Amino acid sequence: MPDPRLPTEVELVYEVMPCNAMRTAQEPIQAPHPCAYFRKWGTYHSYDYLEDGPPPTPGIVHESIYVGRAPLVPEVLSGCRKAPLLALGINPNLPGWWPRSRGSLNPLFDDYKQYAHYFRYRAVAKLEIPPENYAAFGGGPGDTPFSRFELYVPPDSQGRRLIPTRMQPQKMYQAYQGFLDELGAQKGWSNHRLALGEDLTYGNMVACPSAKWVIGPSSGDPDLPGMTREECLGIVDECFHARKYFLRQLFQTLPGIILIFSHSTAAAFIAELRDRFVAGSPTPQEPLEELGRRTIRLEYGVLGDGTALQARVIFSPHITGAPEQFAAAKQEVLRQLLEEADAGALAYNPQTKHLRRARGGCVFCPMLAIGPCDYAEELQPLSTVPRLTAESPISLLMNEKAVQGELYISQPVKGGAGEVWMLEDADRSPL
Does residue 285 lie in a domain region? Predict the structure, then answer.
């Protein structure tokens, strides 16, 4: 935790947003950094918001300008930092790689607060240019990730290339929302507003995107840029072990339920956190079907007052990449969610019409000027103070962060999962 004065959830925004640019543009040219691998995926149509500063309202559709082709930035957690459910993947997906979604738009903000706002509110969709506009701007077969083609977006009288945008629904994210809808319906929570980004957030063990987590040449698609063994292990060592982006966020979010959809993610997660499992005894080599049938729990640690903080870990085949296998496992995932709700681990708050927040403080939204925290009244810090806000003394914010660190350090992730990360994630689909 490099700067104890910044809360973890805020600090990660300032670290992750520029990370891949520094790893690729500010490294010795004779020794390419492993994370430069992600530049092999090419460049994509990017946009910025027209107005400076974070948008005044939620959502990701705002007046935007086209800024041309660019590599993609790393991603932070999507949604509320204290949502009680977390869905986890290996690394972010990349819709623009696939021919049928070349009109995808990717954020390229020069404002950290805009970046934070985008990932707070992305929810079930990313952005794209409407197909008719994409064609009118010259988009077509010659527009590939490895071309230098840029759309011709006519500038207005002030030289701004205003571009229309629309939501590009992501099937994976829509399926997450489906679990929330079914949970609310089966529990009889009338008029609930359970939503992806509010009650279920999603993140990744590695921050930079690719269309697949590919090790070596891909027999199915020779154009997919495969990682060498050295690149794979170097990326994992840099992002997961050294910078600990995912782990630091996990121990700030402290979700009560972690959902893992795919064998490669399951194997890497189990291998890295193997000493923290207190029920179910999962192993990286187990089939998802076996992991998905039993109760598996992970312990974050024990607070000074003796409270043990735990998470139920639920495993399933990939929702969109392995639809037939997922269809067979879907009801088991829902059964386990309902079991946690019946036991009180997932609790509904009729005042907010959302699930109650996970344990721990958070000042992400107010400190980054996104807006007021919608759940401030129910947040319970890990430290001994009754409440934390963005205006709290630095000493209190530092103390909350220190408790997070103590949970993590009490049983550190040892690394050394090595070859487990070498499993290729074949369970990916474009949208």
Answer: yes
Residue where the block lists tokens 């070498």: 422
368: which DSSP letter? T
Structure tokens of 339? Answer: 């079991």
- The rounded distance, in Å, linking the Cα atoms of 268 and 354 is 31
CATH code assigned at 197: 3.40.470.10
Q: What is the pLDDT of residue 220?
A: 75
191, part of any domain: yes
Residue 150 inside a domain? The answer is no
Domain count, the chain: 1
Q: What is the pTM of this model?
A: 0.95
Burial of 374 (0-12, 13-18, 19+ CB in 10 A): middle
**Lowest-pLDDT range, 63-67, 334-338, 368-372, 411-415?**
411-415
Is 18 within 8 Å of 26 (Cβ atoms)?
Answer: no
- Could you read off the pLDDT of 350-362 as tens digits, one per residue? 999 999 999 999 9
User: What residue spans of 31-123 are helical by DSSP H?
Assistant: 112-121
Report residue 35: phi and psi, to 5°: -70, -10
Q: How many helices (H) and strands (E) does the chain have?
A: 12, 14
Sequence-distant (6+) residues with CB within 8 A of 97 are 41, 42, 145, 210, 211, 430
Q: What would you report as the CA-atom Rg of the chain, rounded to the nearest whole angstrom?
A: 21
Taking a C-beta distance cutoff of 8 angstroms, is the pair 407, 413 a contact? no
Residue 422 is predicted with a pLDDT of: 86
Closest among 45, 43, 72, 17 to 164, alpha carbons compared? 45
Determine, yes or no, domain membership for 406. no
Amino acid identity, position 59: G
Give me the phi and psi of 291, to 5 degrees please: -60, -35
* Domain coverage including residue 19: 8-41+76-91+170-351+411-422
Task: Name the token pair of 196.
Answer: 């992806």
